Amino acid sequence: MGVVSSGFIPEGQQNHGNFLDAPKLEAGITRFWLIRHALVEQNARAMLYGTMDVPLCPESLIAQQSMYEALARRLPSEALWFITPLRRTRRTAETIQNAGYGARGLIVESDLVEQDLGNWQGLPHGELPGKLKLPPHQFWPLSGSECPPGGESMVTVCTRVGAALDRLAEENASRDMVVVSHGGAIRAALAHALRISPDTALHFSVQNLSLTILECHDGAWRVVTVNELPGI
């Protein structure tokens, strides 16, 4: 006969196993709240921008105000906040905080930045196929193994991001961490958590302003949610 969990944990009993799937996330867990930055401006979307420091779309900042407010309500109040060196993550984080979360310090974490596309950055999308050595990924401009000249492959990104997550988890054990990052880096985080290949991780949809939650339990990773859209 199966046991049905009510989500109630008796006092003094450690939460584990299926109890982790209770409606409310347990406190005291090393948890990453990964948010993809907001939509970038129209000219940038017409090209491969990678680690270029392109601005956000001003119209979307206004039109998506309700999504920022939903994120401000959804995120844990006592979290550490991390961004990447690119201003689109800083602007996104500040907009969430201004939408009701409250001002918090922003720690720059370079190892969680987007894939560096090297010499291909700034290239119109239509010009990329002729430069590829490998067939492109169905849901990413290039395959996980393709390394742009002067840039990095998604294999490298997964290694970089995975090491950063392990380090931050160790440095901030039992804490909530909000990380405003990038689509490629968040897919790399999923590859690390699930121990899957970069090409497999690129099948995940990670939309702008979406939330992905990962937990680290003594080195074991758990995926709570992927591509959760605020307010929807």
Characterization of the model:
The chain has 232 residues and is an alpha/beta fold. The radius of gyration is 18 Å and the shape is globular. The two termini are 37 Å apart. The protein has a single domain, classed as Rossmann fold. The protein has helices at 42-45, 58-63, 65-74, 87-101, 154-171, 183-194, 198-201; strands at 30-36, 80-83, 106-108, 176-181, 211-217, 220-228. Helix 3 crosses helix 4 and helix 5 packs across helix 6. The longest helix is centred in the C-terminal third of the chain and has 18 residues, at 154-171. The protein has a six-stranded mixed sheet.
Please outline what is shown here:
This protein has 232 residues and is of the alpha/beta class.
Oligomerization category of the chains in this entry: single chain
- Form type: globular
What is the arithmetic mean of pLDDT? Answer: 93
| Head-to-tail CA distance between termini | 37 Å
**Percent of residues in β-strands:** 15-25%
- Helix share, percent: 25-40%
- As for the number of domains, it is 1
Total number of helices = 7
Structural class: alpha/beta
Poorly predicted segments: 1-13
What's the gyration radius in Å? 18 Å
**Count of β-strands:** 6
- Corresponding CATH architecture: 3-Layer(aba) Sandwich
CATH topology: Rossmann fold
Placed side by side, the strands forming the largest sheet appear as 3-2-4-1-5-6
Largest sheet: 6 strands, mixed
Please, what is the CATH homologous superfamily?
Phosphoglycerate mutase-like
Q: Supply the CATH class.
A: Alpha Beta
Instruction: Sketch the topology as an H/E string, one letter per element.
Output: EHHHEHEHEHHEE
